[in-house]
Amino acid sequence: MPKVLLLGIETSCDDTATAVVRGGVHVLANVSTNQDAFHAKYGGIVPEIASRRHAALLSAAVDDALSRAGTHLDQLDGIAVTAGPGLIGSLVVGVAAAKALAFATGLPLYAVNHLHGHLFAAFLERDAPPPYPFLALLVSGGHTQLVEVESPTALRIIGRTRDDAAGEAFDKTARLLDLPFPGGPALEALGRTGDPKAFAFPRHRPDPGTLDMSFSGLKTSVRYFLESDTGKDARREDVAASFQAAVVDVLIDRTARALDARDYRAVVLSGGVAANGALQSAFLALGERYRIPAFVPERRFCTDNAAMIAAAAERRGDVARVDPLHLVADPNLPF
Ligand code: KG4
Ligand code: ZN
């Protein structure tokens, strides 16, 4: 069977992203217009600004992806778009564009859950994709969960954060350290010259019987620490490195417990926080410890991108296919 050529569109948050992907693996173009400059002065994403920027940028971003891939709409086999979850005003821009393109060209339309997209990012640009069943640790700004992946369409959440997502904890702690938005990468950069063992911040695991996690207590303890006498004089680099070490410990501990409970053939890391170097190293070491391959997507496929949306559509096939006239963006789309 020839490998399908899909256009991917992702506008669930603040990245206006488009891509052209062949066979769910080969990325012919991956375009992302980052809006950080528009949101930085507010210290976070302003939904109204995000949706307006998507509307201004998306059409050119589609043209850009097609031309970089050296292809045209009439050479595509389908269009894949993020239908949720995310910011409603942002999602509707991508969904409306994808519906219009699919309707005008008659191409099949695939509605993709943003989180499934993150999961299948691990398949991009790989000769050998992760074998099933695999365990995925999905860590983004809005979600943190462990997923048992039996097949592309049989996904089950077996553990999740009870409060903040790991990325949210990075962003909030970065703000406590007066770092610029977006906080995760800035905190990682600061921590690079810090001592991860300088301060023992709490590693909170809700209870032994579950694979759930919690990060809001950690962020609060960093806040109290920074307000304390010792904290006021502490090197910011050490605080950043110690906070990051605590997040990584909790994530790795929970993933290890899940690996103890069942034999998986691979372990997969995904989501924006997967771009974190300390987490990547610990994750690869975990794979070695359990003697299974550990998959970490390239950095450009960890944070929001449209190639992962096309990859998920290709893997999930007819399950993701929808009628272009009836697709509605859903900010709370269930997993
Ligand atoms: O997956 P993503 O791009 O968007 C969502 O779906 O949420 O994830 C964004 C999150 C943000 O919280 C950001 O701070 C975090 O990923 N992030 C990082 C790094 N790069 C992005 N966190 C820690 N270290 C990084 N290098
Ligand atoms: Zn995301």
From TrEMBL:
Per UniProt, substrate binds at: 138-142, 171, 184, 188, 276
Cofactor(s) essential for the protein: Fe(2+)
> What is its EC class?
transferase
Query: Which Pfam families would you find in this protein's record?
Result: TsaD
Protein EC: 2.3.1.234
Span of domain Gcp-like: 26-310
Q: Which reaction does this enzyme catalyse, per its entry?
A: L-threonylcarbamoyladenylate + adenosine(37) in tRNA = N(6)-L-threonylcarbamoyladenosine(37) in tRNA + AMP + H(+)
Q: Which GO terms describe its molecular function?
A: iron ion binding; tRNA N(6)-L-threonylcarbamoyladenine synthase activity
SUPFAM superfamilies of this UniProt entry?
Actin-like ATPase domain
- What superkingdom heads the lineage? Bacteria
Which PANTHER family does the record associate with it? TRNA N6-ADENOSINE THREONYLCARBAMOYLTRANSFERASE (PTHR11735), TRNA N6-ADENOSINE THREONYLCARBAMOYLTRANSFERASE, MITOCHONDRIAL (PTHR11735:SF6)
Q: What protein family does this chain belong to?
A: Belongs to the KAE1 / TsaD family.
UniProt-recorded name of the protein: tRNA N6-adenosine threonylcarbamoyltransferase
Origin species, per record, is Vulcanimicrobium alpinum
Query: Which gene produces this protein?
Result: tsaD
